[in-house]
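Before the break, one more example. Copy the sequence into your notebook; we will annotate it together after we see the structure.
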Amino acid sequence: MVSTSHFHRVNALEKGCFWLRNAQRLAWLCVLYTTVGFAQVKADTIVTTPAYKSYFSYTLREPLYVTYTLYKGGGDCDRDGMRFDECGVNTATDDDYDKAYDKGHLANAEDFAYDCDLDRATFCYYNCLPQVPRLNRGIWKTWETQIRKLSQKKKLFIVAGGIFGTKTYGPNHIGVPDYCYKIVYEADTHKVLYCLLFPNDTSKSYKEVTLAELKKKVGYTVDW
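Here is what the structure looks like once it is written out:
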């Protein structure tokens, strides 16, 4: 039997379980659901848009990762008024987000600013993960900018996604990644230029890892 003190240390489903002093059975069921469910996540469907592909998990209600090609990214499309939408898929919703987490783009909006229709397509919940603001607005954004600059000279293939533990958030219990990652390939040669791992916390840090190391860490089957 799992003790109530053990359950208190588990971040999973904090807002999804009622806390009752003697409800150890309920606490155990909540922890079991999250641990087992997230350990078995997979890409249930691939959402293909003109801008990117989203490898989407129904369990998490969000993508495991997205892929897209980037060449001479950037532009002057006005994104005022663009807001995230469910876009016809059973995804996270606006209710799942508040000040604790940003709606972190995986396929970066500014990368597609040369075409407003493509830019608008990045504002779907199957293209974002909950990121702490210091990550989304900090080192993650710094690397988005650096990669876009590189795309002015090279055609790139980008993979961006999350690595999930047991943490959930919001009324729909969407998955909160422990880490986010970016892989940058040279599109023509498939050479790995960058393989980056970002803790989803306030540390403002990242780590360069090998592709093999990252594949061992993600915890789900990948197609990259």
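Residues 137 and 152 are 23 Å apart (CA to CA). The radius of gyration is 18 Å. Try to locate both features in your own notes.
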